[in-house]
């Protein structure tokens, strides 16, 4: 059995961790958003890949919601002394990942080769694939002008209203090695409860990935990021309002309609009634047990969706 | 009054600090060896410049003899976990210097511009000039084959016997902006008690710097690194033996003979008697008072040498 997960940051990493606790990690392929990647202080930073690597290796700072547990901050303190740009926090241990990745990318290694090396060093069983080895950069047209993703997300703390979101480079980007094969061979394809517009859309914006999803034989199911009429965290709800969408599962379902067979929604939240398979569960993932529950529910919905595909 | 100091690592930084305590720092120009510079993990590292910046800003770890005081090591621990090369110790605070320098060099800034920015950020009054903005790399032919300087000095701990020392790039290197002007306008030019073969020779190997020293109007005096028939620290004594030299002030005097007017030697050590001006003092620089004493002695010898030049 192979399960593919399209995933972005923290919420997606939680689902992948849950999956890795209910099935052999070796049978899971995570296809990770790289639209948030950026160059900062001359370093190549891949926030979503790193969040997943930290989460799966038990190194994530789960209280803070980003970075490594037990991190020290000597670099940032010295950087500030020297007048360096300090709006993006780089922990001392975290830096090792960025310095090594930057060195290897400059030497000609691809992002997927570097990512695999990190996963192996930390004995991560899940296959972690960047969506593409080509640079794709999420950019937002906002009330204060165009912003790179990290400028919007970290430096401006998602305050500026967003008019439009672009994924520069996506049109010409090739899927990373293994991405298309994993989708084509998957028994189930899951879309994590990451931000649909900022974390999942960049993946869907790579033409060959979208095409592979549309012709995949395995069922595709998403976990809605909406809980109780709001988003669990991050700018999802604010962004949906700015994009003229209602903050509900109908909007999520419409957004993913072309690619999904089913949607996991938070118990009690209104569910769309347009032919999508729906499974209700508590989708809040606070504890490991929560993550396992959501993983099981998502796999169960995928199984139903698979049966329905076979029956058609 | 302007005093120029040719300097390498720790010993040289001590003399410059002593000088900065007995005269206005703004009247001191340090011309620093860059033969030890290297690229490591994709970062541009300038050990001798950094040692001087740390020393003059009060940030140096004087117990350890290199790096910053109060340093943390989260980066190295994480680097090791990832299988990165860990023979060169990079403290978390130290990294800020290397990351910013690497970024700015890649963006096209020169090493001297970057060095000046760091010195300004830390309110260092002494003018700190790299000997050259062009790469000069000290390489050693050793019993185990050719080695880059840091491979020899740090990774191999100076164990392999040295047959020859080369300064790749020196022939074609231009002095950094300000170097020639400082030498030409100096009231005194001091050669710090740094390793003559590894720290000072790379500076003298830049043809225009050597020529400027030979035609300088100000007197040139060196501080001998020999104390009690041995070198204070580092590989100087071992290296002199391997190069077939006696470990004494005669050998030092012969080595510098073409460029110096005088030599400061450690009190009690045999002094060369070949017409060089000699001043004896305790040249061990353990405390700040020691550094001030050696700085005063060196300035005094330079003054004598200047008077002799005028009398000729």
TrEMBL record, chains A, B:
| Enzyme Commission number(s) from the entry | 2.7.8.28
Record keywords, A-Z: Magnesium, Transferase
Question: Entry's InterPro entries?
Answer: CofD, CofD-like_dom_sf, FbiA/CofD
Q: Does the keyword Metal-binding apply?
A: no
Could you say which residues form the signal peptide?
A: none
A single GO molecular function term of this UniProt record = LPPG:FO 2-phospho-L-lactate transferase activity
Which Pfam families is this protein grouped with?
CofD
User: Looking at its record, which EC class is this enzyme?
Assistant: transferase
Q: Which HAMAP family match?
A: CofD
Record's NCBIfam families? F420_cofD
What is the name of the protein in this document? 2-phospho-L-lactate transferase
